[in-house]
Amino acid sequence: MEIYLIRHTTPKIEKGICYGQSDIPLAPSFELEAQKIIQENTFLDSDCLVYSSPLQRCRLLAQKLFPRAKIVYDNRLKELDFGVWELQAWNEINPSELQVWMDDFVKIRCPKGESYTDLNHRVIDFKQSLKINTPTKIAIITHAGVIRAFLAQHNNIALKDSFQYKVPYGVVTVIS
């Protein structure tokens, strides 16, 4: 089985804004970015089981990449819930509150939000729901945090070390 983890394309939001589970639109470059993904990935022509975060930045890309597929939208594939920090500028968040979280973002929850461990549990639950022995291809259109959690689990590394994985917008990461 091959799993294709596809990060959404560039969102339409100012740099420096915390936007985890906020349902923000895509940048005007969406069509060009989506075409680049299509041109560079032959697996898109094959039959895949397709899963996506329901947030529009993933949903619209899933529909563009897999126009004939039955896409399953799954809340477990959403980005980290930053709670009360959603849509705030990072530099405007209370510095002492932010520092507590940054010192142990794996275990500490954002105020009224999630920790990275919470996100990781969602990913584990999602993976367990897949038919692991299925000889098929699975495409998952999702967010950087979810992709890093998948990679940490797959490569057996600590969550705190998963930020070594660079996950640019529109990138496809393959797990076999």
TrEMBL record:
**Which ranges does the record mark as transmembrane?**
none
- Where would one find coiled-coil regions in this protein? none
Under the heading Pfam families, the entry gives:
His_Phos_1
Q: What's an example of a GO molecular-function annotation for this chain? A: phosphatase activity
Q: Where does it sit, as one GO cellular component term?
A: cytoplasm
Q: Which InterPro entries match?
A: His_Pase_superF_clade-1, His_PPase_superfam, PGM_Phosphatase
Q: Which PANTHER family match?
A: ADENOSYLCOBALAMIN_ALPHA-RIBAZOLE PHOSPHATASE (PTHR48100:SF59), BROAD-SPECIFICITY PHOSPHATASE YOR283W-RELATED (PTHR48100)
Name listed for the protein in its UniProt record: Alpha-ribazole phosphatase
